[in-house]
Design a protein that fits this description.
alpha+beta, Alpha-Beta Plaits, five-stranded antiparallel beta sheet
């Protein structure tokens, strides 16, 4: 580690050129290849998938919804506009049929629905066809128009990373105030920006060889910028400490590499291990998010160990190093916490409990299109369908099966008690179809209850091989598939992280208490998201949040405990070591958390709801973890445990003055 960092410091020009070549090359390749993001979820064992298979391998069917603002849509000027739109839709590539206008008509005759059929499934048609469909719908002169379906869902706006720039600017201001040097502002920000730029280009290229959802780019940017500034700041802080103690630049950097540099490696690996836990869910959709985020974290960690030393060589002479003003406030806090660990523990747990309380209302599910960005064709369609046909018009359940005979009529009569049901339709291959329209919206819990009861009645009354499909059913199956695998996911992430910490610190209780505190932080974070956004919450968001915050929490755990362990190895006094460790890292940890929170919170204002949720969740997570958990709860619990913190099978007693060999 020291050799790599020292070489990068000596060969600063070469390293900077290599990073710029990598950024330019990856960027050019990504622009040339273009994105190939796929938001499809493959659930081969799901009931909705079986229903889709019975319906046949037909092409995509998109519903174009239009409303005339000044009269009926089936006559006069409204009909002329509708005919013109239908002609434009029929001329689109891959379109095989368009319902003859006016199609399905609302009671007031001002809203119409045309079904547009394509020659292939939405996943095979690609982004170009989806954009062409959305453009044709937006060009409906004199009509308010939207489109609902899998292809329409692919038309979400491209990731807007402008807010990330605002977050970085705010982070730069914090760095300037905290460290009083322009170099301390430029180094972390430039390091994070270059590495995340490379990561985003790499993720775009990866989308051609694996399933990578579109949202992955924003998640990769969110995590990469946050930890990128964080990692660079910790290396820089240790370097400045060496310079303050009189060491020349090369020697100070060597010490920083041997301590903070190794911590950065371990922290980055821990974040990636936590993200890798998403593979236990067994969904390519989540695998793509995990890989994209891990690529971003690894590149930012690598940049902190290579690009940062190179930039440091250029700016070292211009860096002002303030005299050590002492971290008296943090030392006083640590002494107070270790003197009265009980009250501080209760106070910290009370804060966590208050934040976690809304978690009792957690309900997983894919929000309906009514929560899509304002002005999007999908949100317009959802609003028009509800206005013209009722809240359940955008949530049809497709009951399909074979055989059945007269039982299909009996099933329809049974379902009419709780929903609107169309007449039975006969499809090729002795397949029958009932279209069930709920009387509640797609995200309403009552619609979920209707889905469950419909599935039971379909098999009991209809036929044993009956299945229920449709968008609402597919979303429910997606949520159920993730929920079923959550215990395995949680066990994998927590178990591997505990083993890693036990290996690094040679302790049993430190990893176990760290895991417990991270679980508390996860509960508080989820509660904050539920409080801010309500239900339902995207089913994969708790998975990502838990993986991300567990890894990020381990960053601060490593930086804090490593310094405490260094002091403990010198004199063997646990309480004094806690005071030394908090005094040495308190300001840096809280400054780093504030910087990371500023980057994360900048994503809370983008159009994509799930990105807003992730931004708010991770903001709460890092602030709670740095301020309440690491600076109060960890010291209080460690003070209560005393010498038991360091128990490990086979560990020898510590002698005062023992050489500190910490990763920090």
């Amino acid at each position: 580690m020291t050799a790599l960092v020292s070489w990068c410091f000596r060969r600063a020009g070469v390293v900077i050129v290599l990073w710029l070549v990598a950024l330019g090359g990856l960027g050019a390749a990504a622009l040339h290849a273009g994105p190939a993001f796929r938001d499809t979820v493959d659930l081969p064992a799901a009931d909705s998938t079986a229903a889709a298979n019975l319906l046949g391998a037909t092409g995509a069917g998109e519903r174009v919804v239009v409303r005339s603002p000044d009269g009926p849509v089936d006559s006069g000027p409204g009909r002329a506009r509708l005919d013109a739109l239908a002609a434009r839709l029929a001329a689109l590539p891959h379109v095989t049929a368009v319902d003859p206008p006016p199609g399905q008509l609302s009671a007031d005759r001002r809203t119409a629905v045309l079904t547009v059929r394509f020659d292939a499934p939405a996943a095979d048609l690609g982004q170009e066809t989806a954009d062409a469909l959305a453009a044709a719908v937006r060009a409906a002169d004199g009509l308010t128009a939207g489109v609902s379906g899998e292809l329409a869902a692919m038309t979400a706006a491209a990731p807007d990373l402008g807010n990330a720039g605002i977050g970085l600017l705010a982070a730069a201001v914090v760095l300037l105030v905290a460290f009083g040097s322009l170099a301390c502002v430029l180094l972390p920000v430039l390091t994070a920006a270059v590495s995340v730029g490379c990561a985003l280009a790499a993720v775009t290229l990866l989308s051609h060889v694996m399933t990578v959802p579109k949202i992955s780019t924003e998640i990769a940017a969110l995590l990469g910028l946050g930890v990128g500034v964080d990692y660079a700041l910790f290396v820089l802080t240790r370097y400045r400490q060496g310079r303050r103690e009189g060491a020349p630049p090369a020697a100070a950097l060597a010490v920083a590499a041997a301590t903070s540099g190794r911590s950065v490696v371990f922290a980055g690996v821990t974040v990636c291990v936590s993200l890798a836990g998403m593979f236990t869910v067994g969904m390519p959709f989540l695998d793509g998010i995990a890989v994209a985020a891990a690529v971003s974290v690894l590149l930012t960690a690598f940049a902190a160990l290579t690009l940062l030393p190179a930039l440091l060589r250029l700016l070292a002479r211009r860096m002002r190093v303030r005299p050590d003003g002492g971290d008296g406030r943090w030392a006083r806090l640590a002494r107070s916490v270790t003197a009265r660990p009980g009250p501080y523990t209760l106070a910290a747990l009370l804060v966590v409990a208050v934040l976690a309380l809304p978690m009792t209302g957690l309900r997983l599910g894919v929000p309906d299109a009514a929560l899509d960005p304002p002005g999007s064709v999908t949100r317009t369609a959802a609003e028009l369908l509800e206005e013209g046909f009722g809240p359940g018009a955008d949530a049809p359940l497709l009951v399909v099966g074979t055989g059945g005979g007269e039982a299909v009529g009996d099933l329809r009569e049974a379902l009419l008690a709780s929903a609107d049901v169309g007449p039975p339709a006969t499809l090729p291959g002795d397949v029958w179809l009932l279209t069930v329209i709920p009387r509640t919206g797609p995200s309403d819990p009552a619609t979920g209850e209707l889905l469950a009861s419909t599935r039971v009645m379909a098999r009991v009354i209809g036929s044993p091989d009956a299945h229920v499909g449709g968008v609402v059913a597919a979303r429910a199956d997606f949520s159920a598939a993730i929920t079923d695998r959550l215990p395995l996911f949680l066990a994998a992430v927590v178990g591997i992280s505990v083993l890693l910490l036990a290996w690094v610190f040679r302790s049993v209780l430190i990893p176990l208490t760290a895991a417990l505190m991270n679980l508390l932080t996860a509960a508080a974070t989820t509660g904050a998201v539920v409080f801010a956004f309500g239900a339902p919450i995207e089913p994969y968001l708790p998975v990502f949040l838990f993986a991300g915050l567990f890894g990020l929490s381990m960053d601060y755990e490593v930086f804090l405990i490593a310094r405490i362990q260094e002091a403990w190895r010198r004199h063997g006094d646990t309480r004094a070591a806690i005071v030394d460790g908090v005094a040495a890292t308190g300001r840096t940890i809280t400054a780093a958390a504030l910087i990371m929170a500023l980057v994360f919170v900048s994503f809370a204002f983008v159009d994509a709801r799930v990105v807003r949720e992730a931004g708010v969740g991770l903001t709460v997570a890092v602030l709670l973890d740095a301020v309440v958990v690491r600076c109060v709860l960890v010291p209080a619990v460690m003070a209560r445990l005393g010498a038991a913190n360091w128990w490990f099978p086979g560990r020898k007693a510590v002698a005062a003055g023992e050489l500190a060999g910490s990763v920090r």
